Amino acid sequence: MKEEFAHFLVHFPDMVATCAVLLSGLALGLVAKFLLFGALRRYGQRQDAVLAQSVNRHLRQVSTWFLPALAVSLLLPLVQLPPKPLEVLRRVVETGLILTFAWGLIKTLDVLEDLVQSRYQLGRADNLRVRKLFTQLQFIKKLAGSIVLFVAVGLVLMSFETVRRLGTGLLTSAGIASVIVGFAAQRSIGNLLAGFQLAFTQPIRIDDVLVVEGEWGRVEEITFTYVVLSIWDERRLVLPLNYFIEKPFQNWTRNSSQILGTVFVQADYTVPVEAVREELKRIVQTTSYWDGRVCLLHVTDAKERTVELRALVSAPDASSAWELRCVVREHLVAFLQREYPESLPRTRAVVEAPVAAIGG
From its phi and psi, is residue 214 left (phi > 0), alpha (psi between -120 and 50) or beta? Predict the structure, then answer.
């Protein structure tokens, strides 16, 4: 008991010095973080300071951990401890530094994404090139983040001697393991390869308008394994990446967001087609949904009791086309009701006089 107490007294100054060094490092890191992000916050109040605002938003939290870990690692040579405790402390500090640095790299990808989004606006009407860029950017961001995380975890694990010995032993059976994993993860690997194909051949892109499984929606997110489609009524349709490689689907914005919309009206044979055509032109000229390219009216069918009028109008995008079709349909029906009610669909019946009885 006396020997242990004496040993404690001998090393007590070293432990005090170690705590002082660690606390100094933590305090130095926190002060550096406070000063750095305080300056960024003040500079970010300017409207054109997109980089400062993004760094302050995405890297503020991770810097609370990374900067103290970095300061402690720089002050670690000043620590006076026996070899074994010093080695344990060094491993802990290195592990924290590697993980926080990897976290910072992943959040830096968000900063780069903000810079790209500030330069290229996705909300513009003709945004084909921007959607191509954002689709590739989203996939590359996820891939880079996964690689950073994988490397960071590998560096942490390989810093331990036991894990290194285990890894060396596993390499001897890597061939068999790769075959087993290949069969077990065949679908996952297929989805990953499909993700590369979608990102660079781009049959679909972020914000594309698709009709899939009878549903109309926009591509909201593309991950390594699935695509999220935002349906018009705020539902989400989640589909595997392989779906867009193996099955047909409609892409309304493949080459351009411009689109044609059709409106069908059933009318009586007495309908004045030319008057309806002129009314259609007047209607589209009074709405902002029409892009001025196409405005046509045709008689596309003649049925037993009615004729079918088809109005063909153009719009800058799918949402505007839907609104334009509703406006045209409502106003054409109101026009017929107001000006030509006799041209609305009707059923005719001919009542003949009774034939006189023979010999009557």
Answer: left
